[in-house]
Amino acid sequence: VGPYVLITPNKTRRNQLQQSKLSFAQKELNDLEQWKEEHRPGPIKLVPQRLGGKESEAQARQKQQMMLMQSKYQQKHKREEYVKAKKAAEEAEILKKKAIQREKAERLEVKKRQQEMQRRETFLEDQYYKTDELLNRLDLGLPKSDSCQIANRGPESTAWSRSHTYKQTLREDENRRLEEMKQEQRRKAELMECKQKQEEEARTRAHQNEQRRVNNAFLDRLQNKTQHNSIYQSGYSG
């Protein structure tokens, strides 16, 4: 360890410095208090006047109560209108689905009828061809008729004539049945088209009536609310 010098602190000097700092701080505090005292706001002087408008407290309370009741009434009407609109939309959707299902059922019924008619036509044609084939086989077993045989018809000529007449009658009946079936199918198609058109018109009228009913109900509620407000305002003015 090297040599060193120990200096004794000067207590007097230290006390003087502390006293000077304390005096300076006290002087700043005094200056601040003096500044606050000089800049203190003066008393407020206002002209007395009546507050609260021209209504009394009881009238204001009554008006507040009426406004609260009216707000509840409007909220209730809004909820009712929402529920009615939702119900009408659900009913319209249900009617739309029913109409779609009805159209599908009608188309399926028409398809079944057409298939049934086609099966009947196929069956009749097959029956006609088989009968014609049977009669042709019978004709092949008979001798051909010439002018002499026509002049002197025997039993074979009579049988051929009967078979020929029977074949012709079958052809005529078959043609007549096919024509009647075609006319029946055409008539059913026209009736189905007319029925679909009538149902479409009925749905359109029902939709228009429902829209008119909803609009009239909304206008009635609006008119009643307007009359209620006018009655309330006239009664309050009185």
Can you walk through the features of this model?
It comes from Dromas ardeola. With 238 residues, the chain is mainly α. It has a domain at 92-138. The protein contains four helices and no strands. Residues 142-156 have low confidence and may be disordered.
- From the spread of the alpha carbons, the general shape counts as elongated
The DSSP helix count reads 4
Rg from alpha-carbon coordinates? 56 Å
Mean pLDDT: 78
Order of helices and strands: HHHH
Fraction of residues in H or I helices: over 70%
Q: What structural class do the secondary elements suggest?
A: mainly alpha
- The quaternary state of the protein chains shown equals single chain
Q: Would you identify the regions where 5 or more consecutive residues have pLDDT less than 50?
A: 142-156
How far is the N terminus from the C terminus?
A: 109 Å
Tell me the total number of β-strands.
0
Query: Biggest sheet, open or closed, and with what strands and sense?
Result: none
Please indicate the percent range of residues in DSSP E strands (runs of 2 or more). under 5%
Question: What would you say about this model in short?
Answer:
Keywords: Coiled coil. The protein has 238 residues and is an all-alpha fold.
